[in-house]
Write a structure and sequence with these properties.
The complex is a heterodimer of chains A (about 425) and B (about 270). Chain A has about 425 residues and is of the alpha/beta class. Helices cover about 45% and strands about 15% of the residues of chain A. The radius of gyration of chain A is 20 Å and the shape is globular. Chain B has about 270 residues and is α/β, with parallel strands linked by helices. Chain B has an 8-stranded parallel barrel with strand order 1-2-3-4-5-6-7-8, surrounded by 10 helices. In chain B, helix 11 (about 230-240) packs antiparallel against helix 12. The model of chain B has no long low-confidence stretch (mean pLDDT about 95). The chains are: A alpha/beta (about 425), B alpha/beta (about 270). Bound molecules: pyridoxal-5'-phosphate. Pyridoxal-5'-phosphate binds next to helix 7, helix 13 and helix 17 of chain A.
Amino acid sequence: MSSYFIFDKIIVKENMQSRPDEHGKYGIYGGKFAPEVLMSALEELEKAFNRFYSDKRFKEELNRLLRTYAGRPTSLYFAQNLSERYGAKIYLKREDLVHGGAHKLNNTLGQCLLAKHMGKKRIIAETGAGQHGVASAMAAAVLGLECEVYMGTEDIERQKLNVFRMELLGARVNPVDSGSKTLKDAINESMRDWVTNVENTYYLIGSVVGPHPYPLMVREFQRVIGNETKEQIRDAEGRLPDTIVACVGGGSNAMGIFYDFLDDDAVELVGVEAAGKGLETGEHGASICAGTEGVLHGMYSKLLQDEHGQIKQSYSFAPGLDYPGVGPELAYLADSGRVKMVSATDEETLIAFEILSKLEGIIPALESAHAVHYAIEEAKAKAKERKENLIVVNLSGRGDKDIFLVEKVLGGECK
Amino acid sequence: MHLEEKFKELKERKEKALIGFVTAGYPTAEGTQEIARAMVKGGVDILELGLPFSDPIADGVTIQRASERSLEAGMNTDVYFEVAAGIKGVEKVCLTYYNLVLQRGLEDFIADCESAGIKGLVVPDLPVEESKPLLRICDRHDETDLIFLIAPTTTEKRMARILDVASGFVYVVSLLGVTGAREHISDAIHPLIRRIREVKTFIPLAVGFGISKPEHVRTVCEVADGAIVGSAFIRLIEKGLESESKASMLREIEEYTRSLKAGTKTV
Ligand SMILES: Cc1ncc(COP(=O)(O)O)c(C=O)c1O
């Protein structure tokens, strides 16, 4: 925390609003490290985003879709049983109730609408857990766009249900068999497609990653989460929360719920990365907690890499967190101390997954269960101090997609 | 010799440049040196030696596969510079992705290029907007040119900006897409070269992406100063590894290089 408070707060606050700078940088992070072929497309995209995002009609159209199609606002649910058990007030921001089962649709509706306004007919997207792929297929269907999704063969195996859903929704799923066969390689393949078809194709990135302006656009389209949360928690509790927790893969659900609280210094913002089998094993997805600076997928950020700069394979049993990079703005906020970064292992996460299912009747996505784990630990720690503790967990998605995987891990036998 | 002098020398001989690309360490570090020797014997003017990256977003399947194999066989930046230093009798250019330059340190990377006799550096994910730190170091050392790419989608404004700082040669990307051998060369080349020449007349232009046949080279060399052939060499190596003996593979690479080189002679 400390380094954040060293700065003159007013200046920091002004900077918060003006980030990224005109080069797409968040401090040292971000930028546009893209092949030459794409540079003009990125410029065009930035211009289109600036124009439409401030346009009243565009906003109205997007809000209508968010309300009537996606089911927003999502509720802020007071998890009474969980709260009683662990001695804190724990609220869940129910992004699992968004149509499709995750926060991803907030972004895909925004970007597909933008694509449509730009006159693009074909959408491509990468997906890890399949949630962004499903959300892309839905948004493309409702807005009448053609959709192709790149997905690693390893993830196709892990998330079969979502592959079938995408196909039902009219999207084509292209298997990616290179590299680690997961999200990172699906992004590589999407970029190659975009380089080839840039003139008629819109690349719909699913998180706050990639070259500028993607981290900015995706954050803006996900900000609705924090925006609603702020009003809802004030209505419910008459004050802001002590802590907001979100899981971090690329960082879109985290940036989405954090952003409108950045200037509220008393609200602690916590991002939970995947510690996989444990940070010490090297098998994890914790790019901020255990990574170093470098360039991947068009951005300067924190990455998992070897000493020469070759990207390492990440690992998490939650496919949406199985990525060796992270959004540049989150890397910046972690450095500045405004966001605290922690991690949770597969094992810890699985326990939280079961607890939430049994206590609240809500099966969380494995990704989101990482954040639930932290909330429980935080509640337990503060309960000893006997202070009132108000925690909001961003429940980024529901766990239907994960039940086969969990069944396998639990050996077909729920404890 | 600086790259621009090399182009000048070729011009005096009424030739254009044949630039051949191979992935260093594919199939092995020693193998690359033998392959490079064969290409030199066949008459390659500039050897573009790829330092493989785990996530080559600008490359098609052929170079992706070669990169993966090379990394599996132990290639890394240290080994790369040893391999490069061992190749003689040809001008050398390094092609790699920005993260590998960053992790070695910009200053060290350029110093190592200089020691290994590498005269140019192509970084496909480093557009002119992000190039300032590396460009400054290249300028100070004045041995290794930072080679910029220009594509059919490059706007006039960015083209002017690129040509303002470009040195060595400009890598003209002939099509929208990734690297990989293609049956026909793109007809986007001529208008693109014309657009570049309207801005700057005196920097060598080398055309790459998709070039694989002597007649492609000949067509390209009618309007440009050089042709870059990459994936087609990798494919020859792939084929050689599957079937023939090493000696016959090297002979074939030499012959293929010679056939391409013939297309660069304008008389
Ligand atoms: C439910 C859910 N939560 C979180 C994530 C991680 O992405 P991000 O960090 O961008 O929110 C994913 C990604 O697929 C997801 O499906």
